[in-house]
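Many introductory courses stop at the sequence. We go one step further.
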Amino acid sequence: MRAVCIIPARAGSRRIPGKNLKEFHGRPIIAYSIEAAHRSDLFGMGVYVSTEDSTTANVAWSLGAGVHVRRPELADNAVGTQAVMAAALKDLFPDERDRPDIACCLYATAPMITTGDLRRGWAQLLSGITAYVYTTGPDGQSAGNFYFGMTENFIAGLPLEGNSHHVVLPAERVCDIDTVDDWIRAERMFAALHQPREAA
């Protein structure tokens, strides 16, 4: 199965200005998503950042990602990621015969995502029990990390609701970053996960 990873990263975040490039423990937060995608070895057809912003594009290139130049009308706050994914897949792979079988929408603000999480999502999608696979926390709420789907479903506009299953992430790695308070909480969680362990 051929797969691609697309990271939506528009510039117009209202609650956290410049969110996708904001420094998170010394690095642009988008760097964590790009690197996890590369390390997973799942995306033989590339890791791309979809953005309308030249600064975000330059950072993406510097981190080894390709860039999908998003049309301005797709950078509006009201446009969902499924529409962005469909447009990116059609723009990046205009010939249907060259399109990947699987696409992953990986969010730019997912610093605690692991390659294991991505591989679990991949495996669950390949099991054939659902059209999409997305991440949740133990409480069942969206974790805001990624979702996998077959490329044909993204392009056809098949909705997630009623057509998806989930990968449950541990509570200590779940923080959907939408507000400044979320950001502060995520920084504390990340620090706790990466603090040196005392020798036994």
